[in-house]
Design a protein that fits this description.
Residues 280-302 are annotated as: Disordered. Its EC number is 5.2.1.8. Residues 1-19 form the signal peptide. The structure is a single chain. By secondary structure, the chain is α+β, with helices and mostly antiparallel strands. The protein folds into two domains: 3-25 and 92-225, Chitinase A, domain 3; 228-302, no CATH class. It is built from five helices and twelve strands. It has helices at residues 3-7, 9-19, 37-54, 59-63, 159-165; strands at 55-57, 75-77, 94-101, 104-114, 128-137, 142-153, 174-176, 182-184, 189-195, 215-225, 277-278, 284-285. Strands 3-4-9-10-5-6 form a six-stranded antiparallel sheet, sandwiched between helices. The longest helix is centred in the N-terminal third of the chain and has 18 residues, at 37-54. The chain is globular. The N and C termini lie far apart (49 Å).
């Protein structure tokens, strides 16, 4: 099962809820109350910290790679048999990152084992990335995986996934072998992420993922593509007008199509692509015909 399949489940759940409105007054139905996001973040941080203190990853394999090592991240519980292992919380490769989402400052943790090839760009929050991954609950239940890399549109993943992957880079190149399989240069990004439920599915249960579940993903990043979802000449990340690293809530003309998927951002019936200038070197210029400080492509009255 692929991660992208989980992404449509909240929509399906919403449709199902509407279809079942007639049962809302059934006294036998005990709905799960919506929790306060800030309060749930406190609980999730306690759970994540406990996890990081009691689990370790296969750091010794990365320090001295066996001949058959596939450079996959494996996480296990520290117990009596491996009491000497270094917990994730003490790893020099573990960093934290704060991201404001729905009015709450969330903290996610990122295990940056290898950033990736220095000459490759880091993806933006709205780009597409070529990754392989495993998704786990804190009890180590596997809920999703793809050993072969797949393309992910970061605007359609859970918020924390994109925030973590943007800290990595892809491989410097690859080789197509005689059997038509691909061998990537061994410099691709390798890591793991530890997400509070507020940056995952929060109250929306997904198949075997319960509501309010913090999530763990291990992953490898092989490549990235800058996205222009509506092909209007403006990269999607540049259509984040309020600089909150979310492109779904920027809608200049109020037509319910966010700018990053709207080919006429200001609704003046002139395509955005005709109201900007793409220079010979690939850079963009944004004319402001009436000099009011708003570029033409965002100004219906210019």
């Amino acid at each position: 099962m692929k991660l992208k399949k989980f992404l449509i489940l909240p929509i399906l759940a919403a449709v199902f809820a509407v279809a079942c409105d007639k049962d809302d007054d059934d006294p036998s139905v005990d709905p799960i109350p919506l929790r306060d996001r800030a309060e749930q973040e406190v609980a999730d941080q306690e759970a994540l910290q406990a996890y990081l203190d009691t689990h370790f990853y296969n750091y010794e394999d990365f320090e001295n790679p066996p001949a058959d090592f596939d450079y996959s991240v494996k996480i296990d519980t520290i117990n009596a048999e491996n009491a000497g292992k270094q917990p994730l919380s003490q790893s020099e490769n573990l960093i934290s990152k704060t991201f404001n989402y729905e009015g709450v400052d969330y903290k996610l943790y990122i295990l940056k084992i290898r950033e990736g090839a220095a000459e490759q760009p880091k993806p933006k929050f709205s780009d597409s990335t070529f990754v392989s991954y495993e998704g786990l609950l804190l009890d180590r239940t596997l809920f999703d995986a793809s050993r072969n890399p797949v393309w992910f549109d970061l605007t359609r993943t859970v918020p924390g996934f994109g925030q973590a992957v943007t800290e990595f880079r892809g491989a410097s190149g690859f080789e197509v072998l005689p059997d038509n399989t691909v061998k990537w240069n061994n410099d691709f990004g390798i890591g793991a992420m530890f997400l509070p439920s507020g940056l995952a599915y929060f109250n929306n249960a997904q198949s075997i993922i319960p509501s309010y579940s913090p999530l763990v993903f291990t992953f490898r990043v092989y490549g990235t593509n800058e996205a222009d979802h509506d092909n209007d000449g403006i990269p999607s990340w540049m259509e984040d007008l309020n600089n909150d690293q979310r492109v779904t809530n920027d809608d200049t003309d109020g037509d319910l199509a966010p700018n990053y998927i709207d080919r006429d951002d200001d609704g003046d019936f002139i395509p955005t692509k005709e109201e900007i200038v793409i220079n010979e070197d690939g850079t963009l210029s944004f004319p402001d015909t009436d000099g009011d400080g708003t570029p033409d492509y965002l100004d219906k009255d210019n």
